[in-house]
Amino acid sequence: MITRIEIDGFKSFENFGLDLPPFLVLIGTNASGKSNLVDALTFISAAGTNSVDYALRQVRGDAYGLFRRRGDGVSVPRMRFALEFALTARLGRWRYEVELVWGERGDGLEGIVLDHQRLHSVDGSIEIDLGSAQALRRGADELLLFPYRRSGRDEEQVQLEILTDLSRVRSFHLEAGALRAADRIGGSSTLEATGRSLPNYFRSLIRRTQSDMRPLGVVGDIKMHLVGLVREFNDFEVIEDDQRRDVRIEFASPYGERIGAEFASDGTLRLLALLAVLHDDGLALIEEPENGVFPERLRQLLAIARGRTTEQPGSDGLQVIMTSHSPVVLDVVPSENIVYFDMTTVIEGDVASRVTRARRLREPGGPAKVESERWSRVTDSELSRFRAGVEEPVG
Amino acid sequence: MRSVSCVLIREGPSDDWFLPIILRRALEVLVIERFPACREVQEIRSLPAAGNQHPDTVHQALVCERGTFDIVLYHHDGAPAAKSDPIIDRMREWAADGLGEPMVAVVPMRETEAWLLADAEALTRVLSVRKLRRPPAPGAAVETCLDPKAAVNELLKCEAGLNPAKPGVLRNFYVAVAETADIAQLRKVPAFQRWWNDMIDALEGLGYHYG
């Protein structure tokens, strides 16, 4: 499980650090950096398990645009990421640090290149040699972090577990059009960020989790939750049509009527996809789950998400980070699982630059400032403003 | 790394559209000019629950925020002087007596709207017009405007054909000017320059010039 992220020089982040519990909701106004955090986790996990080129295709913006721009329009010359991992009890906690710069790639063209990276235990007592940055460059693709020197069994295991954690980072900004689409038999079962490939993803979930006693595996749980949340249906099925060679989702109403996904409401499809994601493992980054969802249903979905992350804590379980503008979050999610995003101004020489800050909520009767935290905690007056959905204070 | 955080005690809701933004931007310029050891200017947070007439309500609101701010900005319109001067003086005395954090007064000559009119070029940009047909009096002379609120309404109607009574027009105009106005132009307005000087004193008193 990824337990902490630090970012400097990527998009709106400057010397930014955030602890990541199994369940976390990022709240705040538009353009406060919530989606940038999702991009940062998506980018570094995709670059770490695949390549920088691949990672660039997973996030918003072009390669040069990912470097933070100061207030005077000048981009900073490097991005730095650090991720901390809680691996199995035997291997303990590890920290992966990587610095990327704008430079000449292996194919001679300009782009994002690796400057250096480190992998070491959080206490600093053990370091694994990942090889020189030069040795890792290969043409246009810049591959980060892979088992380079096999010097010992534990070292290989650490890298493998970290690669597994990174490969299970998935981000979702669901779009109803993509959720409605049928799949082809033999097509991808990876659920895309938009929700495309949902039918094949369900087939994969069934195969991965089914047993003799529960032939649908976790999809049985998803059915129950969906019916509880969306009263107009009492079942859904994944239909495999051998003649058309496609796979599609059909809902059943309490009156026996069958309704294809193309006719289901946006909210129903979103809830179905979110429930599916919440019944898988790895780190799910979910953007704005409230879109198209009735507030009471969002309330229940948040409770299910929180319950799922505490059912299976640790490296094999589910970790969820959501972004939201919804005040419902404040009613359902404990304050220790909420982080408030907004902007602050850092002064760099004679340039003022707007950057993201993340603050925890103040506990009732708790301190306004905690020594280990860069910023003071969010007070009730600020939460009232968020709850009311206005950017000016509430009188 | 030293950071500065301010809360704002303001008069009315429309102040929230303008003052927290323009004062934060001004503070950024001030810190760059005078306090190089300060590396961060945080958002200025308005506290409407504080009211702005009596120390008791201000005190209650500040107690809830204590530990999250370094300086209290106290805003009151300057006009009519016979009514506002005693209130401002009472707040200053109360703050000096034991508030704990420094309080800096934000007092435009008449109304906050006068500061909105200080930078004609910014008004041209915000209203998307080639030039203002009847630009407000420039710089310090903006304080000679007897009714700044009426002048803002007139500006919106006559220069851009906007109806200030329509939802969102005034609010978005105030925010846009706050994000656009040149701080150097505002500093030509004596009341704004007084606030600027008082901020320098407050920051020096807190040791920001030492880092």
Structure write-up:
The complex is a heterodimer of chains A (395) and B (211). Chain A is of the alpha+beta class. In chain A, 29% of the residues lie in helices and 29% in strands. Chain A has helices at 34-49, 52-58, 133-136, 153-167, 176-180, 198-209, 218-229, 266-278, 295-311, 328-332, 380-388; strands spanning 2-8, 16-19, 23-28, 78-86, 93-104, 110-121, 127-128, 137-138, 141-142, 169-172, 183-184, 235-241, 246-252, 258-260, 282-287, 318-324, 338-348, 351-360. The model of chain A has no long low-confidence stretch (mean pLDDT 91). In chain B, 50% of the residues lie in helices and 10% in strands. Chain B has helices at residues 15-34, 55-65, 81-98, 113-116, 120-127, 148-160, 169-180, 183-186, 190-205, and strands spanning 2-4, 6-9, 38-41, 45-46, 71-75, 103-106. In chain B, strands 4-2-5-6 form a four-stranded parallel sheet, with helices on both faces. In chain B, strands 1-3 form a two-stranded parallel sheet. The mean pLDDT of chain B is 93.
Task: Sum this structure up briefly.
The complex is a heterodimer of chains A (about 400) and B (about 210). Chain A has helices spanning about 35-50, 50-60, 135, 155-165, 175-180, 200-210, 220-230, 265-280, 295-310, 330, 380-390, and strands at about 1-10, 15-20, 25-30, 80-85, 95-105, 110-120, 125-130, 135-140, 140, 170, 185, 235-240, 245-250, 260, 280-285, 320-325, 340-350, 350-360.
Write the layout of secondary structure elements.
The complex is a heterodimer of chains A (395) and B (211).
Chain A: E1 2-8, E2 16-19, E3 23-28, H1 34-49, H2 52-58, E4 78-86, E5 93-104, E6 110-121, E7 127-128, H3 133-136, E8 137-138, E9 141-142, H4 153-167, E10 169-172, H5 176-180, E11 183-184, H6 198-209, H7 218-229, E12 235-241, E13 246-252, E14 258-260, H8 266-278, E15 282-287, H9 295-311, E16 318-324, H10 328-332, E17 338-348, E18 351-360, H11 380-388
Parallel strand pairs in A: 3-16, 3-17, 10-15, 15-16
Antiparallel strand pairs in A: 1-2, 1-4, 4-5, 5-6, 6-7, 8-9, 11-13, 12-13, 13-14, 17-18
Chain B: E1 2-4, E2 6-9, H1 15-34, E3 38-41, E4 45-46, H2 55-65, E5 71-75, H3 81-98, E6 103-106, H4 113-116, H5 120-127, H6 148-160, H7 169-180, H8 183-186, H9 190-205
Parallel strand pairs in B: 1-3, 2-4, 2-5, 5-6
